[in-house]
Amino acid sequence: MRRIILDLFAGPGGWSRALTVPGARDIGLEWDSRAWKTRARVVRLTIQTDVARYTVWIFSARIPGLTASPPCQVWSMAGKLLGLVDQPLVRQAVSDLAADREKVRRCTTPSRPCSAPSCPNRSASPT
């Protein structure tokens, strides 16, 4: 018998996927319709609801575990999806990190030269 874990703020299913490794599965509670639809496409059991209003005690004697990962506010409906505005910057930062490069290096002490244009300790060449 597979262990069932209750997943609050289930999102598109990251925990659902991870729980399959030890042989468990989850029942997800999620109110964002886009995340709920993603879960439905990959066949994840989901109750579309607001976690704050759902009576989760009904699961208390039936489940051995609970996970709760509140959403990153700017990427969720609660944050009005404003994270999407910065998505190109996030992708560029990840790309830069993967390529081990920094566009601007900022100093933390006056003794260390800096390449940031607005820094008073700016050197002629980046450190």
Order of helices and strands: EHEHEEH
Overall pLDDT level:
76
* Overall 3D form: globular
Q: What's the arrangement of strands in the largest beta sheet?
A: 3-2-1-4
Structural class: alpha/beta
Total beta-strand segments: 4
Low-pLDDT windows of residues:
none
Radius of gyration (Å): 22 Å
In DSSP terms (H or I, runs of 4 or more residues), the helix count works out at 3
What is the helical fraction, as a range of percent?
10-25%
**Ends apart, CA distance between termini:** 58 Å
Main β sheet profile? 4 strands, parallel
Provide an overview of this structure.
It contains 3 helices and 4 strands. The protein has helices at residues 14-19, 33-41, 87-98, and strands at residues 3-8, 24-30, 46-48, 65-68. It starts with a strand and ends in a 29-residue tail after the last helix. The mean pLDDT is 76.
